[in-house]
């Protein structure tokens, strides 16, 4: 008689890799134990394929239903879920597709974008930072922005954003107008008041965003940038990409002494 | 070993309107329910679909202002040999704290082993070892949530050779040891009884009436396997069958007028179809309360 753990490990073997050992623990009674177990395995696969279909609608349209289902099953076999929260399932699909479908190199970028969109859709709720709080900051503080839980930055080798949009819109004209060499490019994804937004950032804006989203104080983040970031910062604020702002107390010994204004217009900072 | 539940005495039916039917709220019906507020006693959702944040949770918060809500989970894996996934339990607690539901329920099943989530409600072997495990997990959940939960009987397509306890006795023992309630899925009893040759009436008779806090009704599919054998699949993709309605009437005679849910998860129809089914359940509840057909069932 198997212990509960032994039985569950055997069932896991059947569900994930088709190992028939669990059949020995199952009563046949007119239906082969393997056929009974297969009902559960079908549901397991079906539920996970459905979860991936929901998260990757553009990838599915780009490759077609049959190819998608084959890829999804191969993904499921190598990436069984680790949590009962299926909105979190499938983060590695982009990397997986790089190996599974190397002849469609842009698929990986589209999948990574869809994952960022999916993550933004389900991210924890947080009110966007009210821009007026910036005017209320002490004059010489160095503020630290807290990125909104839905905000993600990504680098793409291909124009994943235009491919993604044209595919979901089923806009064949827009799709055929896409030039695959329109890359590499940088994207910022977040959930704002009107839903999920996907926007492009220049290389300089991207480096600046990476720094402030990671909690680097504003003055140091501006040091990273080679150009004026005030417009980019305003765009992040307007799109709701921050949830909060903090500042180091005025007595802090690490408090930078340069004025924010001077840094915002600084053009010659060394990025490294 | 009788334990005192953290809240709510055994047999308490919670703040759901007792003799009333609810429906399972699914995404395609969010907007219409929020905007038109159809006449229905209460709503139940799958907890896992409302974790995190964003639009689904915003709808649920708007809708909960007008209806009692029941949170029905599929991911806690009460029957796992290993400890509960504390991250998942935390997500459930976060949702419970935010929605303040009338009822919280989970399944007599398992899905997780060695940290892998097998994305289905797998049958628990009916053994003393598994009974201890399920009871401990129910207690862990009730302690973490600070409230009583209901545990639902599963539908199943297999039995294990080493099971020794009838499923209804197992469920009754879980309720008696932990103080949890029972979510009696009448369709699941019917499906499992057909699949395993059980007596559905004996199953109902084996459940402690005072512990039954909710009833589920749904449709199922009759499937022919390649060898010609028949098996019933609990796919929640059709109207409740006549046999299940009859078994439901019998359940109401045994348990009293328990809040009853219409569930539909595959090929989800127009909201009106669900409201029609709920109207039938409401009528059955009224008949049971009035004792009109007491001899018929």
Structure characterization notes:
- The complex is a heterodimer of chains A (272) and B (297).
- Chain A has 272 residues and is mainly α.
- In chain A, 49% of the residues lie in helices and 11% in strands.
- Chain A has helices spanning 4-17, 33-55, 57-63, 65-78, 93-100, 106-122, 132-135, 160-168, 172-176, 203-213, 218-224, 230-239, 260-264; strands at 143-147, 152-156, 185-192, 195-201, 242-247.
- In chain A, the strands form two sheets. A three-stranded antiparallel sheet of chain A has the order 2-3-4. Chain A has a two-stranded antiparallel sheet with strand order 1-5.
- In chain A, β3 (185-192) and β4 (195-201) form a beta hairpin.
- Chain B has 297 residues and is α/β, with parallel strands linked by helices.
- In chain B, 38% of the residues lie in helices and 18% in strands.
- Chain B has nine helices and twelve strands.
- Chain B has helices at residues 30-36, 55-64, 86-99, 128-145, 167-178, 186-196, 200-205, 242-255, 271-290, and strands at residues 21-24, 42-46, 69-72, 103-107, 110-113, 116-122, 150-152, 181-185, 212-217, 221-224, 230-233, 260-262.
- In chain B, the strands form three sheets. In chain B, strands 1-2-3-4-7-8-9-12 form an eight-stranded parallel barrel, surrounded by four helices. In chain B, strands 5-6 form a two-stranded antiparallel ribbon.
- Mean pLDDT of chain B is 93; it is low at 1-13.
- At the A-B interface, α1 and α2 of A face α2, α3, β5, β6 and α4 of B.
Sum up the structure in keywords:
heterodimer; A: 272 residues; mainly alpha; 2 domains; three-stranded antiparallel beta sheet; two-stranded antiparallel ribbon; 5 strands; elongated; disordered C terminus; B: 297 residues; alpha/beta; eight-stranded parallel β-barrel; two-stranded antiparallel sheet; 9 helices; 38% helix; 18% strand; globular; disordered N terminus
């Amino acid at each position: 008689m198997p212990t509960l753990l032994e039985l569950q490990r055997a069932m896991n073997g059947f569900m994930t890799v088709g190992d028939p050992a669990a059949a020995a623990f199952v009563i046949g009674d007119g239906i082969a134990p393997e056929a009974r177990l297969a009902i559960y395995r079908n549901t397991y696969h079906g539920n996970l394929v459905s979860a991936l279909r929901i998260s990757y609608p553009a990838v599915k349209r780009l490759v077609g239903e049959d190819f998608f289902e084959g890829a999804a099953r191969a993904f499921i076999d190598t990436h069984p879920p680790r949590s009962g929260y299926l909105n979190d399932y499938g983060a590695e699909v982009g990397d997986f597709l790089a190996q599974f479908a190397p002849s469609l190199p842009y698929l990986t970028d589209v999948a990574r974008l869809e994952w960022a969109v999916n993550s933004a859709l389900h991210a924890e709720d947080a009110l966007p930072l009210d821009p007026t709080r910036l005017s209320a900051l002490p004059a010489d503080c160095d503020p630290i922005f807290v990125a909104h839980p839905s905000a993600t930055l990504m680098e793409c080798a291909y124009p994943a954003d235009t491919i993604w949009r044209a595919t979901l819109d089923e806009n064949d004209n827009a799709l055929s107008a896409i030039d695959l060499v329109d890359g590499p490019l940088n994207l910022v994804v977040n959930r704002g008041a009107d839903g999920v937004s996907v926007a492009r950032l220049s290389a300089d804006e991207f480096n600046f965003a990476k720094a402030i989203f990671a909690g680097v104080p504003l003055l140091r983040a501006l040091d990273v940038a080679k150009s004026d970031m005030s417009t980019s910062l305003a765009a992040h604020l307007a799109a709701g990409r921050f949830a909060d702002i903090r500042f180091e107390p005025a007595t802090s010994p690490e408090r930078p002494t340069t004025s924010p204004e001077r840094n915002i217009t600084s053009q010659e900072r060394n990025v490294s | 070993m009788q334990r005192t539940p953290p809240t709510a005495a055994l047999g308490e039916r919670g703040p759901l309107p007792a003799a009333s039917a609810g429906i399972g709220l699914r995404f395609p019906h969010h907007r219409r329910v929020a905007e038109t507020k159809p006449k229905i006693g209460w709503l139940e959702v799958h907890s896992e679909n409302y974790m995190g944040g964003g639009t689904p949770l915003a709808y649920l918060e708007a809708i909960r202002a007008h209806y009692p809500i029941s949170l029905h989970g599929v991911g806690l894996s009460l029957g796992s040999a290993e400890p509960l996934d504390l991250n998942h339990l935390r997500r459930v607690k976060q949702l419970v704290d935010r929605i303040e539901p009338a009822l919280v329920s989970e399944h007599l099943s398992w899905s997780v082993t060695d940290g892998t989530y097998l994305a289905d409600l797998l049958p628990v072997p009916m053994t003393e070892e598994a009974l201890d495990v399920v009871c401990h997990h129910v207690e862990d959940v009730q302690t973490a949530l600070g409230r009583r939960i209901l545990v639902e009987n599963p539908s199943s397509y297999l039995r294990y050779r080493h099971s020794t306890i009838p499923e209804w006795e197992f469920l009754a023992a879980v309720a008696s040891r932990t103080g949890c309630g029972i979510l009696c899925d009448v369709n699941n009893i019917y499906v499992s009884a057909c699949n395993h040759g059980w007596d559905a009436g004996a199953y109902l008779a084996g459940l402690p009436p005072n512990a039954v806090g909710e009833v589920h009704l749904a449709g199922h599919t009759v499937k022919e396997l390649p060898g010609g054998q028949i098996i019933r699949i609990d796919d929640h993709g059709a109207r409740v069958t006549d046999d299940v309605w009859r078994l439901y009437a019998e359940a109401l005679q045994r348990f009293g007028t328990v809040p009853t849910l219409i569930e539909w998860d595959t090929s989800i129809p127009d909201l009106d179809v669900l409201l029609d089914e709920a109207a039938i359940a409401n009528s059955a509840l009224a008949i049971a309360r009035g004792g009109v057909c007491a001899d018929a069932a």
